[in-house]
Amino acid sequence: MSLARGQSPNWLNAVEKSEYLARLKTAVEKLHGGQAEYSATVPVHEVFQGQTVWQGDVEVFDLKGHPKAKRAYAWSHPDGVGDFDEKFTAVLEIPPVDSAKTAVKVAIVAEFKRVQAN
Q1: Residue 74: which residues within 8 A CB-CB, separation 6 or more?
Q2: Can you tell me the distance from the alpha carbon of 67 to that of 60, in angstroms, rounded to the nearest whole number?
Q3: Rounded to whole angstroms, how far apart are CA atoms 28 and 18?
Q4: Contact status, residue 72 vs residue 63, Cβ threshold 8 Å
Q5: Which pTM value belongs to this model?
Q6: pLDDT digit string (tens) for 10-57?
Q7: In angstroms, rounded to a whole number, what is the distance separating the alpha carbons of residues 50 and 35?
């Protein structure tokens, strides 16, 4: 079972990418407040004990008006029955998070803890 998964790199055309970024922007703002502005796309490949545990693109958003963070890292993936829903993940750049890669690591640990608790 994958604990965290991202969208595959380069899976979107330009129009879909624009719509995807708009959904992520909305998710970042609803989850964390402030005003988000898209900054960059960073590919991340996270490996644990020789196995890929997460691979995909992380979207970087600059934040204005947030009391603690100046940046957020976000992505989504299909979720739910038949993968018809979309699950958003948005991680603030607050230590120890200082990059897209560490944002993914923090999200993996949080998801692992959530799964273990259930």
Answers
A1: 24, 27, 28, 58, 59, 61, 88, 89, 90, 91
A2: 18
A3: 15
A4: yes
A5: 0.83
A6: 555 777 889 999 999 999 999 999 999 999 999 999 998 999 999 999
A7: 38
